[in-house]
Amino acid sequence: IKEKPIFSGRSTAIGVLQNGVILIGTPTGLYLKQSLDHNAVKISDTLIDRCNITDIQPLPDGGALIGTNALGLLHYNTSGRIREIQKEKLNHVRSIYRQNDSTYWTSTNEGVYAFTFGPDWAVSEVSHYTFYDGLPSNSATSVYVYQDTAYVATSDGLGILPLKDSTLLQMAPPDVYLNTLQTDK
Fold first, then answer.
1. Around Cβ 171, how many Cβ atoms within 10 Å?
2. Backbone dihedral region of 120: left (phi > 0), alpha (psi from -120 to 50 degrees) or beta?
């Protein structure tokens, strides 16, 4: 059996979508292969033409989240349209982690972000965690979430972030019982 390369050239990320389409990230843009037998074709989009693609995370609807070094987080939809999706400017996205169908995390030079998406992949909530939240460094390389804890790899070691609502962790106020009541009258 003769081996055939999937892609000739430097690649930085790969994602296989539900319909079998293969997205290939490179330091100079995004390529698409309809199948293993097809040639890779560069996606011509002024938004990412010369952008370094750092990660690709396939989505349940057949699209993908795309991490970049300069434009932050992008959304690739099933019709091939690419758009920016973050509410705030992200620095270099290093990796994308899927927590569930609506929450995705990005590791960046400025900590980690948890994005919660609503209909049409519109951002409904963004949480940002940094050194001030307990990370050893803001230079995060990857994140993994298990139950109610996020584990974040940083350039200075592993950070552990409890994700439970901190108000639930506080002690309840004590019960107060009145034995007597005195008034001015």
1. 5
2. left
Per-position DSSP letters for 88-118, written without gaps between them: S----EEEEEESSSSEEEEEETTEEEEEEE-
Give the total residue count for the chain. 185
CA distance 79 to 82: 9
By DSSP bridging, strand 93-98 and strand 103-108 are antiparallel
CA atoms of 85 and 105, how far apart (whole Å): 13
- State mean pLDDT over 77-98: 84
**Alpha-carbon span 100 to 124, nearest angstrom:** 15
Question: At which residue do the structure tokens 């690419």 appear?
Answer: 82
Tokens of 147: 């139950």
Q: Write out pLDDT tens, residues 115-166.
A: 999 988 889 999 999 999 999 999 999 999 999 999 999 999 999 999 876 4
pLDDT value, residue 80 = 86
Six-digit token string for 50: 């010369």
Q: Are 39 and 54 in contact (CB under 8 A)?
A: no
Distance of CA 184 to the CA centre of its chain: 63
- CA-CA distance, 183 to 56, in Å (whole number)? 70
Provide CB contacts within 8 A for 61, sequence distance 6+. Answer: 78, 121
Token representation of residue 98? 């899927």
